[in-house]
Fold these 2 entries.
Entry 1:
Amino acid sequence: MAPLVETKFTRFPDGELYLKCGELDDETLIVSSIVDNDMFMQTLLAIDAADQSRNTLVIPYLGYSRQDKRFSPGEPISARAVARALSTGIERVYVVNIHDPGVLGHFGVPAKNVTIAPAVGGYVGDLRLKNPLVLAPDEGAIDFASDVAAVGGWDCDHLEKTRLSGEEVRIAPKTIDAAGRDVVIVDDIISTGGTLATAACMLRERGAASIHAACVHGVLTSGAYTRLRAAGVSSVVSSDTYENASSFISAASAIVTAIREDAHR
Ligand code: R5P
């Protein structure tokens, strides 16, 4: 078993972060979710503190990853900026269910996506639903939903989403035979819950028997949980890549497996 190094963060009087970590080996695994700006800074400091070591960076949740394009002139490609900044002082990086795999190319070192779709599928199985329908709320989530559905050989379908604003989406009406079905909507991220709530309302209108939500990264901001409950979603579960009260699925074993596979090559 690898030893765990204690890391302490405090703040200078002006608010700047200070880091002190214990004695490091010649090989270090830094595990850090970029859930906010402080965590981004903490990660940079941790990498720098380990400058005498060969470092692998594991990013369970890569914040800023949804600004992966210049959607309008004058914008940064934030995912690229973060990836570039985190590439110094490390030899390789693992990211759990990255929003767009194309972002991996912005790291200056080998970068790999680790999917926890099998673990999410395991959770769907634990729900003990009879013949569930696994649904992706948009085209971007089709591969993830297919991998989840493959765990139990369940039916899988997807909706077509257009984003109108940060909190509002439009989901095109689609013929989905949800009547009487237990539906599990799966996505990489639930942020405001707008996407899933819109999908859930549509499914309710089509007579779904029950609607559940499962995702990798449960950001769950701006009243997301209430929004989902109001839309008729009976359960909301996420993984521990972004820790909160809905984190019932662990990403740990998928990360360990990915690292071990590479170590044995
Ligand atoms: C977008 O393409 C993502 O896969 C999620 O669907 C989106 O980030 C969810 O955001 P929200 O919960 O705010 O609708």
Entry 2:
Amino acid sequence: MAYPNTRMRRLRASAGLRGLVRETGLRAEQLVLPLFVAQDGAAPASQGALELPALARLSISGALERAGEAAALGLGAVIVFGIPSHKDEEGSGAYDEEGVVQLAVRALKQALPDGPLVVTDVCLCEYTDHGHCGVAREDGTIDNDATLELLARTAVSHARAGADMLAPSDMMDGRVGVLRSELDAEGYADTPILAYSAKFASAFYGPFRDAAGSAPAFGDRRSYQLDPANGAQALREAVLDVGEGADMLMVKPALAYGDLIAAVKRETGLPVAAYNVSGEYAMVRAAAAAGALDEREAVLEILTSLARAGADTIITYHALDAASWLA
Ligand code: PBG
């Protein structure tokens, strides 16, 4: 049946009708706030004149304060990134029992036992002096298999500190399986893994790398992160991670990858997290600061579109703002 019997505008005529048939809603409890905890203490984040408050480096007490705000607004989780004062070839700060993430996680779980879940990013790039996500060989290539052991040690130390969920972001082959078996062997069989499965080599990580001081000192990450042109490969990564025991799968970045959020959800049926990354946050902040768009409307539209694409969980630097707007 077509026009004039069918008029799509009938159900758009009032706020009441639009609300009645709205397909997608957003809940604060599905949002995850990134926290950058720095061993050397707090520092604001900016790009030129543009302030990026959600990318600021926090002390542990600053992280507790921000997690407290997250708790008050009902956010589902925080994801903790560490910025160590010392970097070395093997990224030893990543698996140091007294490392910055381990200390921050213990503090968060102690101060806010009923607060947001504490997820940790499991990677070496913030801890290696060369800034790569794995062990670098003499010739500058990244040694997949030598990296796995260090990632597993990192994951186990995060679990021991009390992390509720572990999120490996390194893109080494086989890491989910190795993490799962090491965690099980160490008594953490119930700690879930959120795999950064479809993580692309993206231009949109720039502000994060500035904030975390994790830009690679040589080369780039294209030998381990996905080529943005490859959707079928991204799906294979997701399916392999399911086979290795991932509990949740991530697509990252988010805005240019809605096709993969939908495809990963459809193909695997697992809970899917979309990572609305730092460059995407900076774009919105810059456009809003220039008066080109309304930040609140733009953010809620973006987050709703990610949920509509199939994301169950959304990691976003807008999480505190969005939760306050939804309240
Ligand atoms: C660590 C990691 C990165 C991000 C999350 N985990 C940086 C990278 O891979 O270069 C990026 C997050 C963002 O840009 O918001 N491997």
